Amino acid sequence: MSHQSNHHHHHDAVDGLVNLFIKANNDLNIVQNRLDKEFREIYPDNANPMKLVARIKKIQDELPSLKEQCRELLSAKQDLIDKARTTIVGNRSSLQRLQTSMGIPVTNDSDDPAYTNFNEVIDEWAQQVRSKTGKEAHEGSDSEDINKMLFSAIVEGT
Fold it and tell me: What is the pTM of this model?
C-alpha cells in the first residue's frame, strides 16, 4: 500500500505543476487580451504596438525570400541589358554597313534618338549599380565591369 501512496504522491506533485502552468497560461492570456483591448482603445489601428510587432516579425520572416527575389530580378535585368546591348550594337553595325554599301550617309550614333536614349538608360543603370557598390565610374566601363559590380553588391548585401 505504501507503494501506491508514494506513486499517488508523485502524481500530486506533477498535477500541481500542471495546474500551475495552466494557471500561468490563463493569466498570460488574460494579460494579452487586456493589452490588446487597451491598445485598440488607445492607438489607431496602424499604430497598435502589438500589431506593429506582428508586422515586423512577418517582414523579418519574409526578408530572406525578398532579398533572393531581388537578387534574381537584378540578375535578370542585367542579363536583359547585356543581351539588348549586344543585339542593338550588332544591328546598328549591320545597318551602318548596309548604309555604306548602298552609298547613303551613315547615321551617327548621336543622330539616332532611340540609340541615344538606350545608351542613356544603360548609363543610368550602370550609375545605380556603381552607387550601390561604391565604385567610381571609369571611362570605357563595359558591361562586364557592371556585372562584376552587380555581383559584388549582391554578395556583400547578403
Answer: 0.50
Burial code of 65-87, b = ≥16 C-beta within 10 A, e = fewer? eeeeeebeebeeebeebbeeeee
Q: How many CB atoms lie within 10 A of CB 22?
A: 10
For the purposes of burial, counting CB atoms within 10 Å of the CB of 151, is it exposed (0-12), middle (13-18) or buried (19 or more)? middle
d(CA 73, CA 70): 5
First to last CA, the chain: 66
Instruction: Look at residues 67, 85, 79 and name the one whose alpha carbon lies nearest to residue 147.
Output: 79
CA distances from 79 to 8, 9, 11, 93, 151 (A): 73, 73, 68, 21, 12
Residue with cell 543585339: 87
Render pLDDT for 56-81 as a digit per residue (tens, 0 to 9): 999 999 999 988 888 888 888 888 98
